[in-house]
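Summary for the steering committee. One of the milestones for this cycle was to obtain a three-dimensional model of the protein with zinc ion bound, which we needed before selecting residues for the alanine scan. The sequence and ligand used are listed below.
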Amino acid sequence: MKRQTSQRRQTSQRRAIVQVLEAAPGPLTPQEVLEVAAQTQAGLGLATVYRNLNSLQELGDVVAVHLPGESARFELAGRGHHHHFRCEDCEGVFELDATCPVAVLEGVTLPGGFKVKDHELTLYGLCPTCQAA
Ligand SMILES: [Zn+2]
Ligand SMILES: [Zn+2]
């Protein structure tokens, strides 16, 4: 009986973590996931968040986002091609749904004979909230 109870708690913790990622404006650090998820999951700890993010990643439901010089953030898989915007003030990272500005480069051969296959792009600046402050 005890095992059943603990399994049910695990399921609800994982569901809460997925819901937090679904509602987030961009990829989140485990600490950010914890801050939001803990509002509905009493007693949730950082180690549990890490463990769940790792298994979700193994299942292919979640992907890690690595910005240069920063610890990994996580977002739901299957969101399609997109880019991130990092606010220099609040340090939030947001998913942009603007049209990809460099899609024209895909498949192009650049001067020197470099053929472009893929790219990653992070934009830096101020988010709307920080601009208003
Ligand atoms: Zn900001
Ligand atoms: Zn792009």
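Key point for the committee: The longest strand covers residues 83-87.
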